[in-house]
Design brief:
This protein is an all-beta fold. The protein is built from 3 helices and 77 strands. A hairpin with a 2-residue loop joins strand 16 and strand 17. The relative contact order is 0.10.
Length: 1101
């Protein structure tokens, strides 16, 4: 979220003046804008031109923000004489995000956690069970009735006993899930893992799961202000014994390394040196886990004169071999060594133990991209090497052989090892590329046995077929024939090709055939197969059933949907190319262009999102049929490919729609679902459901769709949609935009009806941070947003907007009135405000006392005052009430206030109250530059009541509160309670030698029931960067942006209690309520439900 630095006015102030100002205290200095109880006339003095008041609209000009400032176990050494890893023969299992078994799909989804689908009826797949997981799902293992799921960023909170102070626990986790009852999957146990996880960092051998976590310098598991020390990069290896599914046990934890990044600089000479961590790659055999740390280093040596300096940029890798041969899970670091280059994916290394010679050998393929030079002579080097290391003696690893391969400027891409035949296959890529067979039959003399040159593009995934007689490679193809239309004129090349290599004779490998994957009706395409070499093998589908050998390759692209003539939108779509191979058709006497081993068949279209897995399987039914399940993050599709020429999509399941907002109409909730999280081109669908538990599973009783919706506002029984429309203004480089308002009548929510529409001049949109149930718009106030440019009244919506006349070249501020009294014919009128430079318009405020009215807040410049060398501008602030008189909007009385109006309301006795905010100013000496002094602003809240003076309404000051050394972020008003979220000011942190992120949020609660700002609570929360969302039934809702929603019981404001924290992951800005249930819309992560009457509280530290 954007932070606005408050303006600081560095002005020279003489020392004598400072003492004078301090001596004046609260009573007499102009800078602190002193107040007195009962005061009804208010003047504000502000340094310079008075732009310290945030959001002021000075005449026709926007002014910036002001106010207080803030910048936006150690690795084991190898015992003497210990054997190299050996003796274990269990299969190495790699985790994945899915499992298909007996027509059941288990899917660990990015957004929805663990889900189970029954595929017995492929035309109507049925969700059997779901278990939300409160972290980002990474991958899982499946064993019997137990799921072992790995999550990252599994955030949870604990609180100090008796205090509203929270600790943050940002960890990864191993979560065991019981699926013995598929309809009710349940968590058995969670085990915390420090660090981050990604796909491919775990392996399972028999009853042991091994996990490698890594910690970059940017990682932290507490609040942001806890980062007082530089985080050192780390990597850990965990081993878990999972023989008892109910109690997975941590057996061992090794720290492979800690630290290593370096930043050195000689300020005298300008020379410097840096070394930085670039992630890990892991591979495993049944006895050894290989973990490679990749590092960058860069150095500059100054020439000391006017000549060229010396530069050097290098890559290096540290290889750790962890002994995992003990089936109990005990692990140890057998050896560790360094070499040049980076190892970038799991298929570029292996470990082989020779039982006959009792030796252990490590083989790795490294890519080096280096450059450097001196005396203005620069050179770069790209080199690929395969290395063999004798690691039998872990204390003394020895490089046995090193072989460079590849042409100049070519980088190694796909690779694979064949330990049985003692060879490695690797392709280097630029444009026209060779595939190499490298022998390690003699581990001391690595050599190239043969190669195929002239391959266009590269190969990123290798798979052996037909008992390793042939090698299939899938990857990028750069030829013209693979980027244009195929022979049939309908299918289009995808720049992705499948190749088959004859590897029966390792001394003379041959290209059997190379066929471009073709899809129908696609233009621009890409594929994840070419982007993630470590996990690309999981994205393709390979299948052999004795009748056919098939491979599926997903490619994705953008499509424009124009089904509706009134609007359009873009969406991602995936085409899955289906290809078969039959090596019995291979004729060695023919060239690769004449072969028919590979054949393209039909195309499967997955209409929603990028497919992460394409799974070919045999569907068991009355007759077995060949089918494909395609998994994207948001949808599941099932296709029948029994007839390969005519694949038939049987069903598409919406798994994770993007829920952006929720609105309650009577006993119904309306879900606002967009086709994507962002974007002007998104399609929006509104779905009406009866309110109740498990909202997502409830039937849709009505729906309607609209494109280019930017905002939606609930107004009475209407849902008002604001669309941005591009208008062709005959300009070559830009489009002018306008806003179209569509009104949908939901007086009968089960039968929504499109009513009228109207256009607004220019791009006028209502913006708000959070919606918190009925009436949520008026209760919250956010000091750094622009939601105060609009207000909802009983008759419509009013905007304070900037207007520019392109014909006349003039600008002004206007009030736009959107009249919704007749939803069939909404109308727009506007009122031009004064353009006098002495007037600044600050925003609008609702009037719950008279719902047909609102307040316009503004200030006028009335003069200047000077203190020493500082000139203060003098302003008077006003709140002018606007109401409808004679069927027209009319400006009524203006009331002078001590600053900007925040909100107005009526007490239980009917007394109108005002809450305003302004700033007091005090001199501040910069500790880093004592010769400079600034005027430091402090936030102030003022409580007033409306009364009469000489027959005119005025505001009488009742109380005020100065927030010295704090800046205010937001506040929420709930009846006679005011909840304020504050943060220490930048100057306070600077004065106390603290970083801007070193202090937590601070909650302050006031009770106004007795006409005073009676402070009931004021404590640091321990949190960082939270925002207030609103209140409901004595519950205060706080948003941890991007992390979750925190619910606080504020029924007794003197003793607030943390009740619940829901990890939402997505940006959750909307809460709606039905009884004691809160519904939180959280994008693709779904709708979270909170039972507000739950007796649970957040666990104590």
């Amino acid at each position: 979220m954007r932070r606005h630095k408050a303006r600081r006015y560095y002005l020279p102030v003489v020392a004598g003046l400072i003492f004078t100002l301090v001596g004046l205290g609260c009573g007499g200095n102009i800078g602190d804008n002193a107040l007195s109880p009962g005061q009804t006339d208010f003047v504000n003095n502000e340094p310079g031109n008075g732009y310290g008041s945030p959001g002021a609209f000075n005449g026709a000009e926007d002014r910036g923000a002001g106010g207080a400032m803030a910048p936006s176990g150690q690795a084991d050494s190898n015992a003497k004489g210990a054997e190299p890893p050996n003796g274990r023969t269990g299969d190495v299992e790699e985790a994945d995000i899915y499992r298909i078994d007996n027509n059941r799909l288990f899917y660990l989804n990015t957004y929805r956690g663990f889900v189970v689908y029954d595929l017995n009826d492929p035309k109507n797949p049925r969700r059997v069970g779901r278990l939300p997981v409160f972290g980002y799902p990474v991958e899982m293992f499946v064993k019997g009735d137990t799921i072992y799921a790995l999550l990252r960023d599994a955030l949870y909170l604990t609180q100090d006993k008796g205090k509203l102070k929270f600790e943050r626990h940002n960890v990864s986790q191993l979560v065991t899930i019981d699926v013995s009852d598929l309809s009710k999957p349940r968590v058995l146990k969670k085990v915390d893992i420090i660090g981050q996880l990604r796909e491919g960092v775990s392996r399972k051998i028999e009853d042991t799961i091994y996990v490698v976590s890594y910690v970059p310098q940017s990682y932290y598991w507490g609040w942001g202000y806890n980062r007082n020390q530089d985080q050192k990069e780390q990597a850990h290896v965990y081993s878990f014994n999972v023989a008892d599914a109910k109690n997975p046990a941590l057996v061992d934890k090794l720290k492979l390394f800690e630290g290593g990044s370096i930043q050195l600089q000689d300020k005298t000479t300008g020379s410097y040196y840096t070394r930085s961590f670039n992630g890990v790659s892991i591979s495993a055999t049944s006895n050894a886990l290989m973990v490679v740390e990749n590092w960058y280093s860069y150095g500059r040596q100054s020439s000391g004169g006017n000549g060229c300096s010396s530069y050097q940029s290098n890559q290096d890798a540290t290889v750790s071999i962890v002994n995992i041969s003990d089936p109990s899970g005990k692990i140890s670091v057998h050896t560790k060594f360094q070499t040049k280059g980076h190892l970038t994916d799991q298929f570029k290394q292996t470990y082989i133990y020779d039982d006959a010679t009792k030796t252990g050998t490590y083989y790795g393929i490294f890519a080096r991209r280096e450059w450097g030079g001196s005396n203005c002579n620069w050179q770069s080097q790209i080199q690929n090497t395969i290395e063999s290391w004798d690691v039998s003696d872990g204390k003394n690893p020895q490089r046995l052989s090193e072989l460079a391969f590849g042409k100049p400027n070519e980088t190694v891409r796909g690779s694979t090892f064949d330990p049985e035949r003692k060879v490695a296959f690797a392709i280097t890529a630029q444009q026209i590329d060779p595939l190499y067979v490298i022998s390690f039959a003699d581990r001391t003399k690595l050599k190239v046995l043969s190669e195929i040159d002239g391959l266009s593009g590269d190969m990123n995934v290798f798979r052996f077929i037909d008992n390793k007689k042939f090698l299939m490679g899938i990857g990028r193809d750069t030829t013209d024939t693979c980027s244009g239309f195929q022979k049939d004129g309908e299918r289009r090349g995808t720049n992705v090709a499948v190749s088959i290599i004859d590897v029966r004779d390792l001394n003379n490998i041959k290209l059997v055939q190379r066929q471009c994957v073709a899809v129908q009706n696609a233009s621009w395409v890409s594929s994840g197969v070419n982007n993630n070499l470590d996990q690309a093998h999981k994205m393709i589908g390979m299948f052999s059933d004795g009748r056919v050998n098939a491979v599926t390759v997903p490619v994705y692209y953008y499509v424009k949907n124009e089904d509706n003539p009134s609007w359009w939108y873009y969406r991602y779509e995936t085409a899955i190319g289906v290809m078969t191979w039959d090596t019995s058709k291979y004729d060695p006497n023919k060239s690769h262009t004449e072969q028919t081993v590979l054949q393209n068949y039909g195309t499967i279209i997955h209409h929603n999102g990028q497919v992460r897995r394409s799974i070919v399987f045999t569907h068991k039914g009355q007759s077995d049929r060949r089918m494909v399940v395609n998994l994207s993050d948001t949808h599941i599709s099932i296709a029948d490919i029994e007839d390969l020429d005519h694949p038939q999509v049987l069903s598409t399941v919406e798994l994770a729609p993007y829920y952006s907002q929720l609105y309650k109409f009577g006993q119904y909730l309306v879900e606002q679902v967009t086709s994507g999280a962002y974007g002007y081109e998104a399609r929006t669908e509104f779905r009406v459901k009866r309110a109740g538990a498990d909202l997502e599973s409830r039937s849709v009783v009505a729906r309607f769709s609209v494109g280019q919706v930017q905002r939606a506002i609930k107004h009475g029984d209407n849902l008002v949609l604001f669309r941005t429309v591009q208008e062709n203004n005959n300009q070559p480089y830009y489009y002018r935009t306008s806003t179209e308002v569509l009104v949908y009548d939901l007086s009968d929510p089960a039968a929504p009806r499109r009513a009228g529409s109207v256009k607004l001049t220019g791009s006028i949109l209502p913006y708000y941070y959070y919606w918190c149930g009925v009436g949520g718009f008026w209760g919250g106030y956010w000091f750094d947003d622009n939601s105060r440019n609009w207000v909802s009244t009983k008759t419509g919506i009013t905007f304070l907007s900037y207007f520019y006349d392109y014909q006349k070249g003039t600008s002004s501020r206007r009030l736009y009135f959107l009249d919704l009294q007749n939803n069939q014919a909404p109308a727009v009128t506007n009122y031009a405000l004064t353009t006098a430079q002495s007037w600044s318009f600050l925003g609008l405020a609702p009037d719950p006392v008279e719902p047909t009215a609102f307040y316009l807040t503004y200030r006028t410049h009335i003069g200047q005052n000077k203190i020493g060398n500082t000139t203060f501008s003098v302003f008077k602030y006003y709140a002018q009430r606007w109401g409808r008189r004679g069927g027209k909007w009319t400006g009524l009385e203006s009331i002078n206030l001590p600053g900007r109006l925040i909100r107005t309301w009526a007490t239980k006795q009917g007394q109108r109250m005002f809450l305003a905010h302004d700033y007091t100013y005090r001199p501040y000496v910069n500790p880093n530059n004592p010769q400079y002094t600034s005027w430091q602003p402090d936030f102030r809240l003022s409580l007033l009541r409306e009364t009469q003076l000489l027959g005119q309404p005025v505001a009488e000051l009742l109380d005020w509160h100065n927030f010295a050394d704090f800046y205010l972020k937001d506040l929420v008003i709930d009846g006679d309670k005011i909840f304020v979220n504050a943060h220490r000011s930048y100057s306070y942190a600077q004065k106390n030698n603290l970083q801007w992120y070193d202090l937590s949020d601070h909650l302050v609660f006031f009770d106004t029931s007795l006409g005073k700002l009676a402070k009931k609570y004021s404590e640091a929360t321990g949190t960082y960067n939270v925002r207030l969302m609103g209140t409901y039934r004595n519950r205060l809702f706080l948003n941890l942006p991007g992390d979750g929603v925190l619910v606080v019981d504020a029924s007794n404001p003197s003793v607030p209690v943390g009740k619940q924290f829901v990890r939402t992951l997505g940006w959750a800005s909307h809460i709606e309520f039905a009884g004691d249930t809160a519904f939180v819309a959280s994008g693709n992560f779904g709708i979270y439900e909170l039972q507000l009457d739950s007796p649970l509280v957040i666990a104590n530290n």
